[in-house]
Design goal:
The complex is a heterodimer of chains A (304) and B (262). Chain A contains eleven helices and four strands; from the N terminus they run ααβαβααβαβααααα. Chain A has 304 residues and is of the alpha+beta class. Chain B has 262 residues and is an alpha/beta fold. Chain B has two domains: 184 residues, P-loop containing nucleotide triphosphate hydrolases (Rossmann fold); 67 residues, no CATH class. In chain B, strands 6-7-8-3-9-10 form a six-stranded mixed sheet, sandwiched between helices. In chain B, strands 2-1-4-5 form a four-stranded antiparallel sheet, with helices on one face. The longest helix of chain B is centred in the C-terminal third of the chain and has 16 residues. Chain B starts with a strand and ends in an 18-residue tail after the last helix. Classes of the chains: A alpha+beta (304), B alpha/beta (262). Chains A and B meet through helix 8 and helix 9 of A and helix 2, strand 6 and helix 3 of B.
């Protein structure tokens, strides 16, 4: 009975104050959608780290006809030079650093290239002899790239030693920056949401001052008087959080999980299921913010 | 039931206190008129009992509890033992008569069955039989005040405070309201009514406490609105006499030196 009555009061408050409640829902929705986007970026970074750090290697590119670097002035790599690199990789000098290595021929390189760029016009125009053959080296400790670089970069027939992790780090720092921006926008929006909730509760309390005045006089408890307003704020924010969760999930499922995965196969992308971890966070943030701002407002504007 | 012990209330240090050193006691079942000009301290008196305000000095006892020292979370329980009626009725315009009265029970968490039983009963007490489904704007002023009274007593408080309940009503309607208040008092509820209405005070012949400039200047067991011949200092003298007698039920009217002015 008591609870049903409080709920009834809550919904009559929402009905009376509908436009404000809708604006709270929307602002909470947008701000939490930004929080969700930042969360997705972080999830994706983690996913890619897990996926790539096992695979990413130091690549030792060998000279081709078209190489322009000084070390390739003598022309394309010879069989002897290739074997020299292979020998060094096998030697005790390199053993403490090298976990494993693989040889990638020009034909294999073309295959991978065509797979990666199959939607692009470039895929058809590239031929195998334009792409360098390479040794793909997995390191025991990826931090020791410099040692490997020194060992191999000066060898004849080696065009370039590149640490592919460095490339990845650049991507990650880009994604990190994007998520920092998303969080900054989210923080500003959340401040808006908190202020808007406070204003909404204040308006609601003002428009029902007759009722609350009578409640006070007949001795209704503080809970009975304040709870409907608190619930009004929390329910509005909760609806916003549910919408934001839905959008976050949809982005993960359809944009990242479906579309991006089809565009870039072979990259580890998250999907809708992974995004579900974010849902309790979004809902928790909305409930806590709404409850705190409602309570502070009520303490100030609703005499009990 | 209600005891003020040397109560003073200062709202603002620069101005005169709203109440000064007021000591008075109302007993269970009494009907007391609180009279005095605007600004004499009647409203402050009522607000102190409700703990809308705290006394600046002294103690206010309501139903055995010192209201001034009551912690905030116990105030609702205090207010459940007091019903209040105002000059402006304060009904909820979008609720029916029944819903207005039921509201006072709902907010205390009373059950549906209990409400369905108590509300018609209390509406009968105030003479609003059969008007349960009317909206406040469809009622006359007197009827609206009856609804407000029904709402004030539906939770069976020990005390009913009425702040100028007839202030917006014509004399005849006022008498009807007084009959209702009298009936409630007969049923054992202590009634304290602040009023400006000479006729009513003179007719009812109940205890009268007069405030002037925040002090009690008269306390008569069955008084009129004003003892016309008395000079201010004599009023003060009567305070001592009448407080000592102090029977619970009003006595027959004393011989007055003059009729109260009309």
């Amino acid at each position: 009975m008591r609870f049903a009555f409080i709920l009834g009061e809550t919904f009559s408050g929402i009905r009376r104050n509908l436009s404000m409640v809708v604006s709270v829902i929307l602002v909470t929705f947008i701000s939490l959608a930004f929080v969700g986007a930042a969360g997705l970026l972080q999830l994706q970074i983690n996913q890619m780290k897990g996926y790539w750090y096992d695979r990413v290697e130091v690549a030792i590119f060998l000279c081709t006809d078209t190489s322009t670097t000084a070390s390739c002035a003598a022309g394309p790599v010879t069989d002897g030079q290739r074997e020299a690199v292979r020998d060094l990789l096998e030697s005790p000098t390199a053993a403490p650093y090298v976990k494993s290595y693989e040889y990638e021929s020009q034909e294999q390189a073309l295959e991978i290239f065509q797979e990666q760029f199959k939607n692009s016009a470039m895929a058809g125009t590239v031929t195998a002899d334009q792409l360098p053959e390479s040794f793909r080296v997995a390191l025991v400790d990826p931090e020791q790239y410099e040692v490997v670089n020194e060992l191999f970069s000066s060898m004849p027939g080696v065009e370039l030693v590149s640490d592919q992790r460095e490339l990845l780090e650049q991507i990650f720092s880009l994604m990190n920056m994007a998520s920092v921006i998303a969080v900054s926008v989210a923080v500003v929006m959340l401040v808006c949401a908190v202020l808007l909730i406070a204003t909404t509760i204040r308006l609601s309390a003002f428009s029902r001052r007759r009722e609350t005045g009578i409640m006070r006089l007949v001795g209704a408890s503080k809970t009975m008087i304040q709870l409907p307003f608190l619930l009004e704020g929390v329910i509005a924010a909760l609806l916003g959080a549910v919408l934001a969760s839905g959008v976050t999930w949809a982005i993960a499922e359809f944009f990242i999980g479906d579309w991006l995965t089809r565009q870039y196969p072979g990259t580890g992308f998250i999907a809708g299921g992974d995004a579900l971890v974010l849902v309790p966070i979004l809902i928790g943030v909305s409930v806590v913010l709404a409850a705190v701002s409602s309570l502070l407002t009520l303490r100030r504007y609703l005499k009990v | 039931m209600i005891r003020f012990e040397q109560v003073s209330k200062v709202y603002d240090r620069r101005s005169r206190p709203a109440l000064q050193d007021v000591t008075v006691e109302f007993e269970r079942g009494q009907f007391v008129f609180l009279v005095g000009a605007s600004g004499s301290g009647k409203s402050t008196f009522i607000r102190l009992m409700l703990r809308e305000e705290r006394a600046s000095a002294g103690a206010v006892y309501v139903a055995g509890r010192n209201v001034a020292r009551l912690p905030g979370w116990r105030v609702p329980r205090l207010r459940r033992s007091i019903g209040v009626v105002f000059q402006d009725f304060r009904l909820l315009p979008n609720k029916t008569v029944f819903a207005n009265v039921a509201f006072a029970m709902q907010v205390l968490g009373k059950g549906r069955e209990q409400i369905r039983q108590a509300v018609p009963e209390v509406l009968r007490t105030v003479g609003l039989d059969g008007k349960e489904r009317r909206m406040p704007h469809e009622l006359s002023g007197g009827e609206q005040q009856r609804v407000a009274i029904a709402r004030a007593i539906v939770n069976r408080p020990d005390i009913l405070l009425a702040d100028e309940p007839t202030g917006n009503l014509d004399p005849e309607t006022s008498l009807g309201i007084m009959a209702v208040l009298d009936q409630i008092n007969e049923n054992g509820t202590t009634v304290v009514m602040a009023t400006h209405d000479h006729d009513i005070v003179n007719q009812m012949r109940r205890r009268v406490v007069e405030l002037r400039d925040g002090r009690i200047v008269r306390d008569e067991q069955a008084g009129g609105y004003r003892t016309a011949s008395a000079a201010p200092d004599e009023w003060v003298a009567t305070v001592g006499e009448t407080v000592q007698a102090d029977p619970v039920r009003p006595q027959p009217a004393r011989v007055e030196t003059a009729e109260g002015p009309r």
